[in-house]
Amino acid sequence: MDYDSYAKVMKALSDPKRVQIIDMLSCGRLCACDILEQFDFTQPTLSHHIKVLLTADLVTVEKIGTWHHYSLNEERMNQLITDTIHLTSSTADLILEEAKKGEE
């Protein structure tokens, strides 16, 4: 498990609005205008939140004409779930194995 990457993703998810955006995108691809309709903030604020999610690799973007469409990066979300299960496991062997990898 890459602890730095995991922490970066968790930091991106530390804002309730970004978690809500992730929840919205779990239903399918949306354009920025559709996302913005659900919030009481400006387009630049949405851009900031989207940038954080893109940087954490939780969201992908596809430009179609003049519109940006955002989708959930399902592979990354599945990895997050796997990492969380791994992180919360009580198996000492896994913890020690990760500690040894970090020392190398």
Q: Characteristics of this structure?
A:
three-stranded antiparallel beta sheet; Arc Repressor Mutant, subunit A; DNA-binding; alpha+beta; transcription
Distance, first to last CA: 14 Å
The CATH topology comes to: Arc Repressor Mutant, subunit A
- The coarse overall form would be elongated
Poorly predicted regions: none
As a percent range, the share of helical residues equals: 55-70%
Number of helices: 6
Q: In sequence order, what are the helices and strands, one letter per element?
A: HHEHHEEHH
Percentage of residues in strands? 5-15%
Largest sheet: 3 strands, antiparallel
The value of Rg in angstroms is: 16 Å
Structural class: alpha+beta
Q: What's the total count of β strands?
A: 3
Q: Please indicate the count of domains.
A: 1
Full CATH superfamily name? Winged helix-like DNA-binding domain superfamily/Winged helix DNA-binding domain
CATH architecture: Orthogonal Bundle
Average pLDDT level? 90
- The CATH class: Mainly Alpha
Protein name: Metalloregulator ArsR/SmtB family transcription factor
Keywords: DNA-binding, Transcription, Transcription regulation
InterPro entries: ArsR-like_HTH, ArsR_HTH, HTH_ArsR_DNA-bd_dom, HTH_MetalResp_TranReg, WH-like_DNA-bd_sf, WH_DNA-bd_sf
Organism: Carnobacterium inhibens
Describe the structure concisely for a colleague.
The protein has helices spanning 3-12, 16-25, 32-36, 43-55, 74-87, 92-103; strands spanning 30-31, 59-64, 67-72. It is of the alpha+beta class and 104 residues long.
